[in-house]
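User: I've been going back and forth on whether these two constructs are worth ordering. Before I decide, could you fold them both?

Assistant: Sure. I'll take them in the order you sent them. The first construct and its structure tokens:
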Amino acid sequence: MTSKRWNEPAVTEALAAEHGIKADEYKRLLEIVGRTPTFTELGIYSVMWSEHCSYKSSKIWLRKFPTEAPWVICGPGENAGVIDIGDGQAAIFKMESHNHPSYIEPFQGAATGVGGILRDVFTMGARPVANLNALRFGEPSHPKTRSLVAGVVAGIGHYGNCVGVPTVGGETNFHKAYNGNCLVNAMTVGVAQQDKIFYSKAAGVGNPVVYVGSKTGRDGIHGATMSSAEFTEDSEAKRPTVQVGDPFTEKLLIEACLELMATDAIQSIQDMGAAGLTSSSVEMAGKGGLGIELHLEKVPQRELNMTPYEIMLSESQERMLIILKPGSEDLARSIMEKWELDFAVIGHLTDTGRFVLKMDGETYCDLALAPLFDAAPLYTRPTEPTPAPAALEPELRALKQSAGAVLTRLIACPDLASKRWIWEQYDSQVGADTRFLSGQADAAVVRVHGTQKGLALSSDVTPRYCHADPYRGGMQAVAESYRNISAVGATPLAITDNMNFGNPEKPRIMGQFAACVEGMAEACRVLDYPVVSGNVSLYNETNGEGILPTPTVGGVGLLADGMKAVGLALRNAGDVLLLLGETAGHLGQSLYLREILGREDGPTPPVDLALERRTAELVRALIADGLVSASHDVSDGGLAVALAEMAMAGGIGADLPVLADADAGTLFGEDQARYVLAVPADKAAEVGARAAAAGVPVSKLGTVGGDALTGLPGGAIPVAALRGANEGWLPSYMAGTAH
């Protein structure tokens, strides 16, 4: 095989190791190829067999997820999941991580994370209608945390705002386990017509392979392999592996692709995400059982003297690969050039089953394609169970100070403090279809444009539960997503997930992953809430210290009438407050235990999936019948925090006499399957009767009114004082004045 003089090094086992290919994997590679690969071929194998692209440690476990339902049009395996939302329309959505890049270069890492997930959705023919993000940072006192928060939030806001897609929800938490490895999980939801959904499976020998979008540069090379390894002290040196995004070009690319999709020109289409031109071309041809030949000198390049290796491994942003139907080239070119985007025919599909790369007449890669696509090593890694936490001492339930004092401290802690400073940097209203956004309801609600329908969207996981009991924590993450979607009145339909874990080569970490998957899968089965897309991010460790297991769940639900969605704000004096569900006062792994008593121990709350389903179905029916003024699920911080959040959102208080003698467990325990509902006084009896008929425990907490929460142990607490504490922490922290 000839080689142009690019000073390419000779390929050795040591060079393969530098590319993340272990010795046994390199031996397997040599057996498959039948010779020593070229440098370009080594680079291609390194990214396609990386953890990030091949899921070699996780695939056997991911197969346990339920992925089918009558409303599922396309489950895992495509760029994003697709569900039926009626009237010939589909919701298309996915969540992905950009953790490693965001830690190294917060602004660009987060920005390009948003850009990448947008492309995953619109490449299937959907117009993106909403973004969400789930962010985890280290403890606030860590010297890097403030700059990470500032950079990540700015990057998300910049990209989403410029591209014109509203950012409507998400979550932000802090914990020392993320000191060396923040998490940035981005989710996009789009809407498409069911008869205009595009897939990535290539077909048609001889069909032209077309490159559109931005030019290829040297940014992002080895991004996929970088995301498949732990960090060390030299992680800052990996800045060249972080891509640079241009949201204005992305906006042009969205409009150009949607215009081209309205014609009959496209056979298949794929965005160039992780591993860029390599993964997109290999996956498209691989799914179709075909070969592909590319001529790399035709690839639009923004830098001089780019080698085949660099062109194939670049992760430059805002690029798409399209297989056109024969004779459509001129039409496609005219559309792309109208939108001022690069367009180039760079190759064609073949029937050889081979991946062939040429440049200026020289061949740099000639590999059997199938092993790149489906023969990556699959590992059944050893797993070690997480020991069951010891029970807590019963005396911890005694309240040592006034409920108001505890409540004020809790709602001002980093996890519960208002994230207004963050979401006010995001354009949440662009498109004019946002019904509820961050802070207004348990789930964001976005109207399906031109209809009455509403999509309910939420992002959920409680990592401290997953760390203490991965199986139960995985169940709880799905159950909380189901609750949040139901709390606004929507029917939960499906989830996407982002499985963020440490080093899978450690049995303890792999045990966490396996148990979380098992718990999530069980919850999805019982709740009829299938997994339709997702992402796995492993090796989230720095110097051997791993993150908390964080399987983020992105949920999507549907309302027939989005205007009937119910928020969490108390509105009407005289409304009756009802608690649905049972309160056992479970303090294990609670925020009360951590923030007030300085402990992180005890068992996680039990999860009763049958009760979760019964209670959620009741809540949805009550909202549909117009019986609920406000609705909020009980989660972090327990019942007292849920009531405070409802009062702060509405600027009105409540009298809660039944809580006068409540202990810490009753007020701050994090028992599951609970909702607080505000209902008109003349409807309370009907709601109670319907709860009893549904087998759902119900109790009256009090009535809405006044400007304080009264009836709590230790005296009343003004809503204004709660709001001041809740709103004050994050702006003070970011200004450097928080104590």
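The second construct, handled the same way:
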Amino acid sequence: MKHILTKIHLLVLIGFCFFNCKTDHSSYLELADGTDGNWLLHGLNYSETRYSPLNQITATNINELGLDWSLDLGLKRGIEATPIVKDGIMYLTGPWSIVFAIDLRTHEIIWKFDPEVPKSFGEKGCCDVVNRGVALYDNKIYVGSFDGRLIALDSKTGKKIWAVLTVDQSKPYTITGAPRVVNNNVIIGNGGAEFGVRGYFTAYDANTGEQKWRFYTVPGNPSKPFENEAMEKAAKTWTGEWWKFGGGGTVWDAMAFDPELNLLYVGTGNGSPWDRNKRSPEGGDNLFLSSILAINPDSGELIWHYQTTPGDSWDFTATQHMVLTDLKIDEKNRKVIMQAPKNGFFYVLDRTNGELISAEKITYVNWADSIDIETGRPVETKWARYGQANVDVAPNFNGAHNWQPMAYNPNLNLVYIPARETFSNYGQDSTWVYNKKGFGTGVGWNLAIGSVDSRPTIKDKKATISGKLMAWDPIKQKQVWSVKQDNIWNGGLLTTASNLVFQGTADGKLTAYNGINGQLLWEANLQTGILAPPITYLVDGVQYITVITGWGGGYGMKNKHTNLVLPGTIYTFKIGGKQQLPEAYPLYERELINPLWELDKSKIVEGETLFWQYCGTCHVVAEGGGGVAPDLGYSFMVGNDAFKEVVLNGALLTNGMPRFDDRLTEEDIKNIQHYIINVVSNKKQETSK
């Protein structure tokens, strides 16, 4: 009788689970926290804390931390990926969305998948052909390709299982962010707000690739039916004919998930174009730009939203890293979501309903005095929108914090932020006209930087430019410690149970700090700029630290680390590692060009306009060497036919350098070169004085 009852109970339980329990095998992702030695999710866990419970590496023994192995990936340009590690296998991405599987015991490539993104798509991206990583689920690897596909691969072989096109490729959409897997759905967004697209993110069935739902972040043409009530509500906050410009609001990076509340949190991007006067001339908050959205991941329904920068006019995206945790605030336990978006404030929200708990400045900020705790809105300074004058705005489009992930240590209740002090001069461009011809560079995007009008300029003597690694108390909303850095474009963060904080830097060093007081404990010079965040994991019971070098990204396209663009390399450290660090690469002297042409001053003005429309996204002139894209002031091609072959006829298209024969004439090419020659000539005169 007892056995019969046991079988009945078992059948009842099976029946209950058939109808009520999760059958998507995703529960192990909900439990992922690094205690098993793996790094299974983009932020280590669904809360995206990047806090590892591993503690073999401590402040006491960190001087014994040494390089154990390295692997040259043979790829140039920026590497921003957070690797995924499961059972001794590492999965990561490089530029052009190439995926690698690495055996962590033999240190060899198991397989490599190249999605073969057409190199002509490189011009669709504002910020290099980077990729921030993959998702792993049910023996599948998911990657978003730069040209807008979501691809599922067999994790053992790297063979493609399915692929779906997630964007209209006739428009300047790209994918650089890592997918997330939630409740058997793969969630992916896109980029392109700079170039005139409408943002959205989409859920696809993890097994089949079938689209389950899509959420647009800004409203479309109001003459057509709105997709949902959220879009109908959002349209009331826009004016003019914004849909012709795309609107923006792209979801190109941050997400987090709370399984208990079953809420997916998504950060949205800037407007298209940047200046609200252009896209929404009668004002308005322009929902859901620069916002945190709480979404039901099963249906795509909006549950709540919080807009960090209403009516954004500065490229103050809210696509920056978000962290979920529980904090005791005013003697009350609160479920919170924390974010430091570009705009310079650190936000603590109630993640159940979006209520603002607190917000304070983490860097120098002059566009707003504070955040009104009652309304949740910024108290803007009267000149912040640069309507009557050109204005130094702090922070600028690079942000007080950009995509590089922060980390949260729950033992210390401290958030570590790869912050920076920045500012730029913003102004109205009365000549701006949206140009539908073509896509990407030259589409008529408005940076809102500088002015073509003779207007007064408001300078801010307090504004500076420098990097800053900082520890932030989210309860007291104040800085605990900070470390000043010369360069603003440093890598993402990792923190551990040993109260260590790891970061790679723009000058090529992997560093470790005491998370309590900010003391530098250890560093290793890897000779190549580091953007990617470090991770830690176990192999055969031994704790390792891995970081991937590879200079590039939006800032790195123009700004140099060294005179050499070096291949991306995986570097892995352990206590007792004995391998030699890479040797220093000597900087070599270069000379500004001496073109054969005589300067024609009549061509300079037109050449300057064309340069900033088509070239200035990636290139500088006579500013010290450039970054991934060369400084054209040092290019031997300027002043001869080679320049035309590259720019007009696509001689370097396989390297990702666009061809512009569909937009520029030979006369345009000559004008651009005369502008470059003029800049070089002026630079030489300055240095000779």
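Notes on the second construct follow. The two ends are 103 Å apart (CA to CA). The chain has eight helices and 40 strands.
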